[in-house]
Amino acid sequence: MKEFLKVAVDIAREAGAILREGFERPKTITYKGEVDLVTESDRRSEELVVSRLKKHFPDHGIVAEEGSGATARTRYCWHVDPLDGTTNFAHGYPCFAVSIGLVEDGKSIVGVVFNPVANELFTAVRGEGAFLNEERIRVSPVEKLANSLVATGFPTHLRKKSSNMEYYWQFTLRTHGVRRDGSAALDLCSVACGRFDAYWEFGLSSWDTAAGVLLVEEAGGTVSDLTGQPYHLGGPSLISSNGRIHVELQEVAASIAARVAKD
């Protein structure tokens, strides 16, 4: 495990340097859809991460957001988001990261998330705890939803069909507030280190969550889908929390889902 983590950390830092350099220069932007951005830095970062992983672990599978990975079925598979928070990056908002997660037989075992602007490196190995810049981190001690600060995100496509605005509204009324920072990986890290007490979202891909979910769990938090069932990478919904408010979150989510279904 330590070899896997060391390589992932080195690669994340190297890819982060690419993003930091690109962040300070004019952006070349293309689109995967009507509003789904891709930058030159996305591609450069992914090329580096994938090439390094193939060099170190030629027998491992790789799933990467921009499609340059090798998706062969193997015991070990890396899930890579070379630039999580592309829209933020493109607009000069310094909230983005490299996310690298290693999955064994469908379960995350190593997670690395690196924010190159803040120079924050989040790391976790299953069973060994979660860390920020090598200092142990834990989820928050908040006991009630009413006293919490939570986060969410919205899809870049099919936005008019998303029901998340109703969840956003209802959770805003029941908490200290809802933040939307635009990086699923960093939102999960913020739950892991206690900045947020919970985070939920719909329609995330495996590369968005493979590293962050492990960080939350290793920091003492809880991750499930919105119904309380186990979360599976790439599943339709995710809710993560400090564990203490998880049942209350699920109860509120269930009431919102019932209301949305009637409409």
The CATH superfamily of the largest domain turns out to be: Fructose-1,6-Bisphosphatase, subunit A, domain 1
Which CATH C-level class of the largest domain is it? Answer: Alpha Beta
Side-by-side strand order of the widest sheet: 3-4-5-6-7-8-9
H/E series: HEEHEEHEEEEEEHEHEHEEH
Distance N to C terminus: 48 Å
Helix content: 25-40%
Largest sheet: 7 strands, mixed
Please give the count of helices: 7
Structure classification: alpha+beta
Please describe what this structure looks like.
This protein has 263 residues and is an alpha+beta fold. The chain has two domains: 2-136, Fructose-1,6-Bisphosphatase, Chain A, domain 1, CATH 3.30.540; 145-262, D-Maltodextrin-Binding Protein, domain 2 (3-Layer(aba) Sandwich). The protein contains seven helices and 14 strands. The protein has helices at residues 2-23, 40-56, 86-90, 164-174, 184-192, 206-218, 246-262, and strands at 29-31, 37-39, 61-64, 76-84, 97-104, 107-115, 120-125, 130-132, 135-136, 149-152, 177-179, 198-202, 222-224, 237-241. Strands 3-4-5-6-7-8-9 form a seven-stranded mixed β-sheet, with helices on both faces. Strands 11-10-12-14-13 form a five-stranded mixed β-sheet, sandwiched between helices. It has a two-stranded antiparallel ribbon with strand order 1-2. Helix 4 (164-174) links the parallel strand 10 and strand 11. Helix 5 (184-192) packs parallel to helix 6. The longest helix is centred in the N-terminal third of the chain and has 22 residues, at 2-23. It is globular and about 50 Å long.
